[in-house]
Input
Amino acid sequence: MIAVPDSVSTAIPEIRTELLAWFDASGRELPWRLGTEGARDPYRVWVAEILLQQTQVARGLHYYDRFLEAFPSVQALAEAPIEAVLKAWEGCGYYARARNLHRAAKVIVQNGFPADYSGWLALPGVGPYTAAAVASLAFGEARAVNDGNVRRVLARLYGEARPTDAWIQARADALLCPARPGAWNEAVMDLGATVCTPKAPRCAECPLSAHCAAFKRGTPTAFPAPKVRAAARMVQAVAVLIGDEREAVLERREGGLLGGLMGLPMLEFGPQQTEVTVLEELCARLGARPGELLGQVQHSMTHRQITLHVYAAASALPRQTVADAALSRLDHKALELLRTRQESLFAAPLMDGSSV
Ligand code: ADE
Output
């Protein structure tokens, strides 16, 4: 059987010209885009691509500047203690990424920056997406990236509701502009982030609408169909705050739940246990005296929804300066309980009806 080319495949040269013209006029100015196209600073590009794997650009910018200020070069990153790297990563989540950045920085200081896709792929924490992004943006290698934005743009362009990773990669490879691979990759990502958005695409502003199957059918948001995700597991845990929001007893977390970060002493519990018995068990382990309930905080992670019951407790254990430790957002929310409680105590009316 002879394969009939689809309408996108026959228009690839126009699609490249139109999208790149749009990108040259409307692409975003982002801090890792400094320098010559296809020959950018690999360190800045690499850090950005790792950071942006689970963080949107708007939110990532602040973290990016903070990280680059703390570690302006790969040497600075390689020489820093891991605690400082985790601290600079605070708030970005998925701390394995920071550990891998640190490990890979040590390799790069020894061997130099890899100059191609397979060299990047061999570094800790670098998968096909990051290797393709760094190889194309910093070295001009013709490698197509495949991330959430690319998936959405291509699913709509071709009118494919259920694209597999292999399907997307094959289309992305075919569309990639060999003369400007880095600009092409960023153009598709920018189009996905600013025009071909998930819920309210701005098709009237899209340089590719004339070629877009989903636009022609009048149902762009139907592509791609939502992925069916496994429900998040509900996790209950008790934590104790010994100290205050500035100085508290902190422990290094082990295991899956926020492993490697520092946090308030915490114990997960199952449906057979009660909060009070778990609090007692936790306090017995610490040699602490349980105090009052400060409140509950909720925290969502990719596969878990955590409810943390936070209690005050008293103990002679040494306290650490909270500002110096890398804490998860869950722990920041727990510490915040103390501050909001103090504010509400201060704001509470006095017996005579006034307030302080
Ligand atoms: N998302 C991830 N990497 C990006 C990049 N280089 N430009 C725009 N958005 C991105």
Summary: Strands lie at 233-241, 247-248, 251-252, 262-263, 266-269, 289-300, 304-314, 320-321. The domain at 236-347 is CATH 3.90.79.10 (Nucleoside Triphosphate Pyrophosphohydrolase).
